[in-house]
Amino acid sequence: MERIDLLLTGIGSLVTPVGNAPRSGHAMNEIRRIPEAAIAIRDGLIVFVGPEAEVLSGLKGAQIAETLDARGCLATPGLIDPHTHLVHGGSREHELPLKRAGMPYLEILAQGGGILSTVQATRAASEEALYEKAYRSLDIMLLQGVTTVEAKSGYGLSLEDELKQLRVAKRLGETHPLDVVSTFMGAHAVPAEYKGRSGEYADLVCGMLPVVAEAGLAEFCDVFCEQDVFTVAQSRRILLEGLRCGLLPKIHADEIESLGGAELAGELGAISAEHLLAASDQGLRMLASTGVIPVLLPGTSFNLGLNRHARARDMIDAFHLPVALATDYNPGSCPSESMQLVIMLASLNLKMTPEEILTACTINAANAIGRGAGIGSIEVGKRADVALFDAPNLAYLPYHFGINHTFGVIKNGQAAVW
Ligand code: NIG
Ligand code: FE
To answer: What's the ipTM?
Structure first.
């Protein structure tokens, strides 16, 4: 007799992108909607999904271990946050007066604050303290409906301290219900002891890469390619060395200045390019031609008080790119774990439709971290990661803002929030 571990009934409306591949341009609007749906789960995977009546008749005679009633909620694939700086020590609320007085982000960094202040706090923190702090952030993310998160290192900036952050991320993935995907970002800033010697520090980062790869502590390599941080040439050198070691390139590109980071992402065929507020048309064309996923971070432009935003409409309408969304959760430019805030800001400031936003937070986000085959849509054979929102329809998520819509979260086929 067929066995079902969990049957989810009473879903008011199920909305999901279809397929494993990223959805580009106008195809981001094409989602599947199933009213009054049910999902059957076995061994952490989806085995049936469809209209409830169909699923129930297909399960006649099956042995169902547990049934949960979603009470008319909206079901989406578990949200995926493909860009965070999850593991770090301390916080930076002491910089608020500087920010409010108008001091730019890069100026605070140049004075030894910003990222460098978090580097000090992270170096000083024990592995256990970093773990506990990040574990609480993962709890917050789960309560937001997030089921997979990417986590970057980059607040250690020495081999030992980077490894410490990466070990914490690994342990979090093993012990917390959320899945954690690791990125090595030793090139997040030039540490104080290398001030004015960014080239030498880039060499040091290149030397860290084989050690990180050998230890199996990261899948991706990221670089902050920005004015007064890492040049395009240094970024290229680091990302190529990462590739040689088996780490796929990601890049913080054209966040503040138009340096040519998007062009570099296109040239290297990076898996993703992030931020992109100042990306040129040529850069966006190159992303499209080599299949790079633009990961947009509207929480960051919002929190930095910028009145410009990534050109999501151009990316989707003119360049037919597969836009993804993420929080960029970090203690400086975006101290918020809230994907639901990102959903609202993507509507308000990026002018994305609710369907595009859903695609961006699920299948496109999954592809930005190399997980499109396993997660990012509610389909037979995929991992049973489902978010349930107390919302009558998809457009209600960006519309009714500043509250948490989550009713329940199924992670790996288990009710992680109910
Ligand atoms: O993506 N831009 C560089 N890195 C982060 C900010 C990190 C920080 O301020 O601590 C970002 O915005
Ligand atoms: Fe970032």
So the answer is: 0.96
